[in-house]
């Protein structure tokens, strides 16, 4: 059985794209072969920075013969239809078609076309160019003289040569000749760029791999990873050290070399004064080298492990020396940044006593804009401080600590280290805070207030951190809602969905029962005050200019506008939150934001396997929906109830009641709220009716009690007790009784059932 | 080709100017036009019309030149060993890129004394983008023993216009490369003229004072109100010139307009260094310069050098 070997040699492929490219090539080629009837025994793809190679073995020499049926028109169809069919099917006379009978549709023609199999090389020569042209690189490019045409071949980097052979194990294979944009497939490849640049003739995957190995190319990425990891561990072990393993870095490094040569370098011990995280960030991000740990101290050692792509003639001395130079320069920068950040900040020594506070002063002084419509980072920090202070008691945090943490939370944006390595933002703030003697919780909050950043990120647990994290995210959300920059479709440039999910996870995972709307109203007022203040400032500027030029009467419109804005700012800033109830605009905006939270909550609960209709049912019941923890507890309790027989039947009964009410209320043009006439129930009601009526009074009172105590399981249990009475009622009692008073009363009983269940959820929203 | 035949003071591994001369000689021998630096403040060699405009349109173009690059924000008063607000780039532009551009590039490294059998030379993914020029391309950072020594880019778009054909662009950071070749830790220590003893001139002697003076200017004293005005004036004049140069199917005044685009770009860089442009405003300034660059690029295609039909 013959094998196919295909290699696409190009200029260096980005490390991060190699694995997907190899997988795609394998799938695309094998799928296309199978689609043409060419089954195979196995396939294997390998990839290096310069090549993707695929072997498909155990292929047939030719694709199988196939009979293809083509349906034609019915017998007796117009001549034009018959002729069209003959042409399409490649027949010369309708006699060549067979007639198929169908009892329903009558007789019709069918052409059976024999498609003889083709030699597989021909099939390959047809499919491979198509696959190359349609290759789904994340980013591709054009190059060279051919690129005058916009339809020239696109590849991840210039494609240099194609190797394509086909043949049985025992013989020399044939070269499958095809050309794509002037590159003609052959049976040669090249070895390592520097150590074996000449042409190599290959036959199949096995000699391909061994020939390349001799030419200093390890084609298999897993083998390169294995060699790098083994050599790196051994080098470290020999020095009594251990490698800080890093899967992501290993994958990347293995994608940067064809012939890995692992070497160890060192840097001056004095650089160990830099925090480990910063050393690692420096060495990893910039140099793609591993760092090394000293098992005795648990801290980093002054060594690093690099992976070269060359067996150098001097044994790697120049390479190590070169890398050490670069790392020394990088670490000098890092050390300088780390030390500078702990010193007083020139020009701001008088603005504040401590280094981090001085950085915060600088952030304020520079008027660094957070968003053009939402003011500066300084204003934002002031808002977060006020909000964190408000939230602190709700989550059990010390308000002073929360305010202090919020004050310093963004200060590290002005530090040199964070300027250089944005990925250590927050972490550096924490370190500098501890160095200047801040409270542990303040330091923790500085690092953690950005968290959680995504569905798998850690959720802070320190109460101060929780307060600041909530304040930070709410300010963002409320702010963007205030300027009407909400996410739409796939566009969410300010990561507001992530912020909302962060709030939800903070609340849920910390078990915080807390109303979001009052916090959102408070936050919204602070934002409005800032917006108005900015507006007043602009008006004032225009006014002064106008006065200078003598254009304007000082008592004119602009002047009055300034006063109005200033008064409004004063009102918004000066009034305690409780003093003014939420205004209409605040209620609308909060409701809109709350429904955004609910959408995120639904997504989260769905991902956790909860039914979306239960969430809808709970949310539709109205009150208390801005306490997300309670919403979740109600959903869980409802799911628990519906998991029982009683619950299922109660649901069916309640839905029936709601349906009847909907129909009858519509027909009568009135609602059947209000208490049923108790005397009438007792005088003329059926026994089942009396039983349900009595039970409803107690069950709904119990349910309400439980709800008030946030005991949703208890509420559900109280409701579940209604089930036998509801079933019996529907069994025996005719709701639409001829006696109008009796009918009204029965509808009112059903309305009571609807109301009782509505204390936990709107049952009409539940499916099934 | 090796530098062994050169007198010691001319060798690229001993002399900063020797490095420049070696690269010039190498690329001249490969058929490049050796241009001189553009006589305006630019942030990178790409902004030189010899790359920015010439990479547009169908006409073949091979050029190499040194371009002094001004990055006001990178100034460190001459105190940082690796950062300067003024440094040199060596720029090569080949349109269309020859099929053996990587080999040519590696040859140029050998020509300046970097033996690829001794040094670990790598092509590491780097998608290059210059938002103010509306330009992007795919390519690599070229590493030598872990140090980035060049940028290697296949231009895909310049001034918002698809490159047809694609140019290959090589940019060598000369100071960093020279530090490596001369084995010194700080740019200021570089031997500029390759001489020793009393005849030796260092980079410090040539540029330290300038770094200090310009850092003061860039960070502390540049007149921001004037710079804002200058930005606006350059923007206006660029558009005016582009309008006045229109002549039916042809354009007659692209390069003066493009100069104004460069002036606006430099004013923006200075304002940025002065810290008076906020993050969000920054984006809008970049967009404004990009619009100018795009308009210049479109006009260039209507000139003879841009390939417009006679």
Please describe what this structure looks like.
The complex is a heterodimer of chains A (768) and B (310). Chain A is an alpha+beta fold and 768 residues long. Chain A has five domains: 3-62 and 120-214, no CATH class; 66-115, no CATH class; 221-342, no CATH class; 371-408 and 437-608, no CATH class; 630-765, Isoleucyl-tRNA Synthetase, Domain 1 (Orthogonal Bundle), CATH 1.10.730.10. Chain A is 53% helix and 11% strand. In chain A, a hairpin with a 3-residue loop joins strand 2 and strand 3 (51-57). Chain B folds into two domains: 3-216, BirA Bifunctional Protein, domain 2 (2-Layer Sandwich), CATH 3.30.930; 223-300, Class II aaRS and biotin synthetases, domain 2 (Methane Monooxygenase Hydroxylase, Chain G, domain 1, Up-down Bundle), CATH 1.20.58. Chain B contains eight helices and eleven strands. Chain B has helices at 16-29, 49-52, 101-111, 174-182, 203-221, 224-244, 254-273, 279-300, and strands at residues 33-34, 61-70, 86-95, 121-125, 128-130, 135-144, 147-158, 161-162, 168-173, 246-247, 250-251. In chain B, strands 1, 2, 3, 4, 5, 6, 7, 8 and 9 form a nine-stranded mixed β-sheet that branches. The model of chain B has no long low-confidence stretch (mean pLDDT 94). Classes of the chains: A alpha+beta (768), B alpha+beta (310). The interface between A and B is large, with 54 and 43 residues.
């Amino acid at each position: 059985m013959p094998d196919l070997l295909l290699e696409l040699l190009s200029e260096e492929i980005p490390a991060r794209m190699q694995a997907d490219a190899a997988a795609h090539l394998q799938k695309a080629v094998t799928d296309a072969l199978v689609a043409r009837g060419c089954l195979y025994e196995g396939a294997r793809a390998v990839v290096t920075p310069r090549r993707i190679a695929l072997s498909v073995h155990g292929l047939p020499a030719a694709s199988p013969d196939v009979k293809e049926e083509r349906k034609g028109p019915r017998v007796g169809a117009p001549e034009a239809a018959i002729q069209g069919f003959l042409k399409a099917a490649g027949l010369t006379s309708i006699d060549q078609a067979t007639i198929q009978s169908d009892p329903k549709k009558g007789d019709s023609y069918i052409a059976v076309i024999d498609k003889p199999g083709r030699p597989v090389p021909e099939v390959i020569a047809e499919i491979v160019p198509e696959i190359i042209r349609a290759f789904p690189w994340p980013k591709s490019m054009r190059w060279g003289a051919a690129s005058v045409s916009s339809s020239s071949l696109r590849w991840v980097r210039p494609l240099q040569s194609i190797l394509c052979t086909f043949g049985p194990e025992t013989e020399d294979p044939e070269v499958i000749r095809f050309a794509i944009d002037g590159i003609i497939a052959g049976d040669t490849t090249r070895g390592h760029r520097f150590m074996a640049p000449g042409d190599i003739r290959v036959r199949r995957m096995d000699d391909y791999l061994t020939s390349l190995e001799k030419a200093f190319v390890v084609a298999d990425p897993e083998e390169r990873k294995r060699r790098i990891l083994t050599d790196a561990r051994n080098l470290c072990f020999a020095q009594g050290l251990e490698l800080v393993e890093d899967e992501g870095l290993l994958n990347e490094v293995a994608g940067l070399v064809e012939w890995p040569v692992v070497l160890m370098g060192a840097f001056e011990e004095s650089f160990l004064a830099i925090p480990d995280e910063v050393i690692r960030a420096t060495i990893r991000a910039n140099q793609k080298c591993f760092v090394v740990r000293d098992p005795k101290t648990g801290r980093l050692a002054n060594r690093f492990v690099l992976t070269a792509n060359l067996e150098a003639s001097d044994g790697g001395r120049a390479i190590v020396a070169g890398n050490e130079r670069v790392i020394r320069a990088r670490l000098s920068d890092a050390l300088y940044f780390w030390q500078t950040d702990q010193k007083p900040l020139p020009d701001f020594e008088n603005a504040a006593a401590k280094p981090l506070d001085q950085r915060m002063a600088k952030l304020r002084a520079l008027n660094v804009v957070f968003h053009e419509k939402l003011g500066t980072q300084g204003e934002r920090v002031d808002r977060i401080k006020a909000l964190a202070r408000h939230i602190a008691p709700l989550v059990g945090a010390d308000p002073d600590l929360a305010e202090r943490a919020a004050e310093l939370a963004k200060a590290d944006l002005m530090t040199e280290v964070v300027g250089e390595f944005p990925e250590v933002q927050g972490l550096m703030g924490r370190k500098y805070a501890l160095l200047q003697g801040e409270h542990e919780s303040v330091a923790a909050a500085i690092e953690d207030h950005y968290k959680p950043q995504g569905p798998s990120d850690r959720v802070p647990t320190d109460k101060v951190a929780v307060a600041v994290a909530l304040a930070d995210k709410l300010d963002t959300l409320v702010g963007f809602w205030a300027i009407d920059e909400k996410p739409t479709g796939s566009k969410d440039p300010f990561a507001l969905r992530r912020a909302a999910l962060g709030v939800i996870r903070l609340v849920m995972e910390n078990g915080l029962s807390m109303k979001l709307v009052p916090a959102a109203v408070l936050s919204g007022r602070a934002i409005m005050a800032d917006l108005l203040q900015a507006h007043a400032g602009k008006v004032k500027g225009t006014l002064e200019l106008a006065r200078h030029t003598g254009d304007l009467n000082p008592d004119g419109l602009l002047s009055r506008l300034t006063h109005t804005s200033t008064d409004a700012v004063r009102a918004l800033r000066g009034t305690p939150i409780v003093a003014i109830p939420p205004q209409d605009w605040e209620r609308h905006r909060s409701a809109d934001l709350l429904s955004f939270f609910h959408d995120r909550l639904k997504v989260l609960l769905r991902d956790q396997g909860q039914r979306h209709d239960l969430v809808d049912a709970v949310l539709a019941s109205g009150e208390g929906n801005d306490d997300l923890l309670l919403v979740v507890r109600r959903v869980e309790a409802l799911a628990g109830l519906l998991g029982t027989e009683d619950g299922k039947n109660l649901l069916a009964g309640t839905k029936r009641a709601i349906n009847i009410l909907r129909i009858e209320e519509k027909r009568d043009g009135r609602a059947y709220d209000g208490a049923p006439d108790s005397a009438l129930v007792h005088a003329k009601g059926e026994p089942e009716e009396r039983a349900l009526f009595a039970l409803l009074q107690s069950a709904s009172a119990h349910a309400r009690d439980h709800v008030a105590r946030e005991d949703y399981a208890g509420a559900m249990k109280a409701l579940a007790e209604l089930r036998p009475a509801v079933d019996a009622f529907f069994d025996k009692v005719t709701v639409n009784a001829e006696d109008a008073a009796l009918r009204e009363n029965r509808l009112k009983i059903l309305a009571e059932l609807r109301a009782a269940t509505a204390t936990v959820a709107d049952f009409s929203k539940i499916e099934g | 080709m090796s530098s062994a035949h050169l007198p010691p003071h001319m060798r690229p591994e001993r002399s900063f100017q020797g490095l420049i001369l070696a690269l010039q000689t190498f690329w001249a021998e490969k058929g490049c036009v050796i241009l001189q630096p553009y006589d305006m403040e630019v942030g990178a060699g790409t902004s030189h019309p010899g790359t920015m405009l010439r990479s547009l349109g169908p006409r073949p173009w091979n050029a190499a030149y040194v371009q002094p690059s001004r990055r006001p924000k990178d100034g460190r008063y001459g105190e940082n060993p690796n950062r300067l607000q003024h440094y040199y780039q060596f720029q090569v532009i080949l349109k269309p890129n020859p099929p053996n551009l990587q080999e040519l590039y590696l040859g140029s490294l050998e020509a300046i004394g970097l033996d690829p059998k001794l040094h670990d030379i790598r092509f590491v993914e780097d998608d290059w983008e210059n938002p103010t020029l509306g330009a992007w391309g795919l390519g690599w950072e070229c590493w030598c023993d872990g140090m980035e020594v060049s940028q290697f880019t296949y231009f895909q778009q310049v001034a918002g216009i698809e490159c047809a054909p694609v140019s290959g662009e090589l940019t060598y950071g000369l100071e960093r490369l020279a530090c490596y070749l001369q084995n010194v830790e700080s740019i200021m220590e570089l031997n500029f003229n390759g001489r020793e003893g009393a005849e030796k001139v260092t980079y410090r002697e040539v540029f330290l004072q300038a770094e200090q003076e310009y850092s003061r200017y860039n960070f502390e004293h540049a007149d921001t109100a004037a710079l804002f005005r200058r930005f606006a004036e350059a923007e206006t004049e660029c558009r005016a010139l582009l309008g006045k140069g229109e002549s039916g199917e042809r354009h007659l005044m692209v390069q003066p307009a493009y100069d104004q685009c460069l002036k606006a770009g430099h004013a923006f860089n200075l304002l940025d260094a002065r810290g008076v442009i906020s993050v969000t405003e920054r984006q809008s300034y970049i967009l404004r310069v990009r619009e100018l660059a795009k308009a210049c690029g479109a006009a260039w295609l209507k000139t003879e050098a841009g390939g417009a039909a006679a």
